[in-house]
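Submission checklist for the structure archive. All mandatory fields must be present; incomplete records are returned to the submitter.

[x] Identifier: phosphopantothenoylcysteine decarboxylase
[x] Organism: Ostreococcus tauri
[x] Residue count: 222
[x] Sequence attached
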Amino acid sequence: MSRINLVLGVTGSVAAIKCKELTRALVGIERVKEVRIVFTTSAKKFVSRDDVREIQNELGVRCYDDDDEWADWGKVGDPVTHVDLAKWADVLLIAPLSANTLAKLANGLCDNLLTCLFRAWDLRANDKAIILAPAMNTAMWNSPFTKRHLKSISEIASSAKDDAIAGFIVVQPIEKALACGDYGVGAMAEVSTIAQLVALTGEEKHTREFLDSAVMYPSDYD
C-alpha cells in the first residue's frame, strides 16, 4: 500500500466546525503519510483559534491561509505556495466545500490559496485524486447552478469514471437537520464516510453498496 500526502481544504460552510474531528480521522489513516490544511478566509469564521492550535500542536498538522501564499515569495525564483502544495499532495480533499468555492472552482477562479491550488492540480496524473465533500443549505444544494458546477468540474477532470474509484470523487451530502433550522439534503457527509473514501482512494477495494451510498456519479449531475 503506497502512502499518501493529503491537503485538506476547508471552506466557509458551517460544517467547517468538524475540521478538528476530520483532521484527527485523517491523520489516523494508516496510508496517510502527512496532512496539511488550507483554510479560506471564510472558513476561519467557523474554526476557532483554539482548534487551529490543537490541530497544529497536538496533531502535528501544518495549517495555511491566504497570507501564506506570499509568505515565502519575494522575488522571481522563490517558492510559490499553491504550486508547491499541488506538487506535494497526492490527494486534495475539500471538506466542507461551500457553494461559493464550488462556483469558483467550476469557473476556474484563482482568488485565494485554495482555488489557486486547485487550478494548479495536475488532473492528468493517474496517481493523484480530488475528493469534494459539498456542504450547504438544501435550497442551495437544489439550485440548478450546483449541478451545473459539479458537472462542469467532472467533465474537466477527465479522470472521472463510472466506477468513481480514482481521480475525481464527489461525496454525496446527507439529509439531516441543518444549522439554519431547515431539514433536508445538503449537510456534509459523515466524517467516517469521508475518511473511508480517503483510505481507499486509488485502491480497488470499494464495494458497490458503499459507493452507491456515498458517491455521486456523473449521471447525478444531469
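[x] Structure attached
Curator remark: The chain has one domain: 4-221. The mean pLDDT is 90.
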